[in-house]
Amino acid sequence: MRFDDVLDAEGAAIRGAIEGTVMGTAVTIPSFYILHRQWPYFRSLPLQVKALAAIIVILPTTAIRAEHRMIDYERSHWDGADKYAVERRAHEERLRWGSLSVKDKFADWTARHQLSFVVGSWALAIAISGAIIMRDPHLPVRHKVVQARVWAQGLTLGVIIATGALTHSQRAKAAQMRKHGDNSWEDVLDDQQRKVRAVT
């Protein structure tokens, strides 16, 4: 990949991150406004907890949108025979996906969307742990925030380890498939032969 392509790819990711941040903020601000007006308990929460809740919404949308923009950028640069080969493989991948069990689908999706899965798991973990810890009337709020963060970090570490194991398993399967050879060049030749026959 050329240096210019790398810069373009980074630009696509940055645009996606900005879009995700704007989207998350667009959801967070009206939601917080409504909660502040309608729910006395929310009004009583300290600013740190409200900021944490905003991060839980904004950070995942930022990461996920950046990832989607990168994928879109890569797809937009497919052309010619490469595009045909990729589309054919995508069709085969859809067929393979349809034949997988629910467990295998989860493992496959997680391996291909690691960032989204880890960030989403962190947000979910901190939301659940925060909701549980905030019910304790004997702890000061600052201690509750610290405990929620520690629990979320611990759970996220477990998710990262599990994701790494799934990724290793997927790579092992991919390596096993590569032993049988990469036949994508055959798809390219078939496409070129069809074009020649169409011209003649």
Automatic annotation (TrEMBL):
<feature type="transmembrane region" description="Helical">
    <location>
        <begin position="12"/>
        <end position="35"/>
    </location>
</feature>
<feature type="transmembrane region" description="Helical">
    <location>
        <begin position="115"/>
        <end position="134"/>
    </location>
</feature>
<protein>
    <recommendedName>
        <fullName>HIG1 domain-containing protein</fullName>
    </recommendedName>
</protein>
<feature type="transmembrane region" description="Helical">
    <location>
        <begin position="47"/>
        <end position="66"/>
    </location>
</feature>
<dbReference type="GO" id="GO:0005739">
    <property type="term" value="C:mitochondrion"/>
</dbReference>
<dbReference type="InterPro" id="IPR007667">
    <property type="entry name" value="Hypoxia_induced_domain"/>
</dbReference>
<dbReference type="InterPro" id="IPR040153">
    <property type="entry name" value="Rcf2"/>
</dbReference>
<dbReference type="GO" id="GO:0033617">
    <property type="term" value="P:mitochondrial respiratory chain complex IV assembly"/>
</dbReference>
<keyword id="KW-1133">Transmembrane helix</keyword>
<feature type="transmembrane region" description="Helical">
    <location>
        <begin position="150"/>
        <end position="169"/>
    </location>
</feature>
<keyword id="KW-0812">Transmembrane</keyword>
<feature type="domain" description="HIG1">
    <location>
        <begin position="87"/>
        <end position="178"/>
    </location>
</feature>
<keyword id="KW-0472">Membrane</keyword>
